[in-house]
Amino acid sequence: MTSHDTAPAIRRPFRPRAVAALALALGIVVGAGAPALAHDPVATTNPVDGSEITTAPAVFSVTPAQPMLDLSGDGAGFGLQVTDAAGLFYGDGCITVEGATLSMPATLGGPGVYTMVFQYISSDGHTTSGSVSFTYAPTDASTASPGSPTPPTCGVPVATPSASPSATATAEPTPSAAPTDSGATGAEGSDGESSTVLAIVGGLGALLAVAAVVIALVVRRRASTTE
Predict the structure, then answer these.
(1) Which among 110, 121, 142, 222 would be 20 to 30 A from 205, CA to CA?
(2) pLDDT at 102
(3) What is the C-alpha to C-alpha distance for residues 217 and 223, in angstroms, rounded to an integer?
(4) Using an 8 Å Cβ cutoff, are 136 and 114 in contact?
(5) Distance CA 123, CA 39 (A)
């Protein structure tokens, strides 16, 4: 009977330090990718993406899932713009960052499709941006606000685009005053002058006639005395 020698099994000692180092390395790798997944996504917008509204909202707004990070307190790094299909801007440019909401007072022009683009700083310090589109279809005779060809600045009056020649109303000519009847006035003046001249001539004629009579009488009287 042949016997076979069996080599004893080798047992490696448990090394907790190696396991800890491996876990730490995995943690670093996972941790490095965590910020990319930690951006706060948008929870709600006003108006809602793809919606159709019949009345203009009081404000345009974006609300992410977590409060936004406004370290400066003046909205630096935040933005909100609304444009129509023609590229005109609406709103007054005065954005407000309050808690988890970025907002701006709203204005809209005529019916049509509008796009709202936004940018905010997430609670993890990363910048997040996006856009939504909505359709404005007013059911009443709402007053359309003028759009601006440039992004509005808070506190600065909105610059309205110049009117096209076809849209410019043609001013009707102001009717001139009725012409005065200068011919009639001149005729009246001429008649008046003629009457004055005739009166003067007539007066002179009368004086000459009286003078002739006086002279005739004087001559006659002298002739009578001489005889």
Answers:
(1) 222
(2) 97
(3) 10
(4) yes
(5) 7
Count CA within 13 A, CB hemisphere, residue 139. 4
> Among 218, 92, 101, 197, which residue's Cα sits nearest to residue 145?
92
The string of DSSP letters for the chain reads: ----PPPPPP-PPP-HHHHHHHHHHHHHHHHHHHHHH-S--EEEEESPTT-EESS--SEEEEEESS----SSSS-TT-EEEEEETT--EES-S--EEETTEEEEE----SSEEEEEEEEEE-TTS-EEEEEEEEEE--SS-PPPPPPBSS---TTSPPPPPPPPTTTSPPPPPPPPPPPP-HHHHHHHHHHHHHHHHHHHHHHHHHHHHHHHHHHHHHHHHHHHHH-
Strand partners, 118: 80, 130
> Residue 160 carries which side chain, given as an amino acid letter?
T
pTM of the full structure: 0.56
CA distance linking residue 53 with residue 108, whole number of Å? 11
Residue-wise pLDDT tens digits, 173-201: 555 555 555 444 444 444 555 555 555 65
Two tokens, residue 225: 């005395």
Going by C-beta distance under 8 Å and a sequence separation of 6 or more, which residues neighbour residue 106? Answer: 56, 57, 58, 59, 60, 82, 90, 91
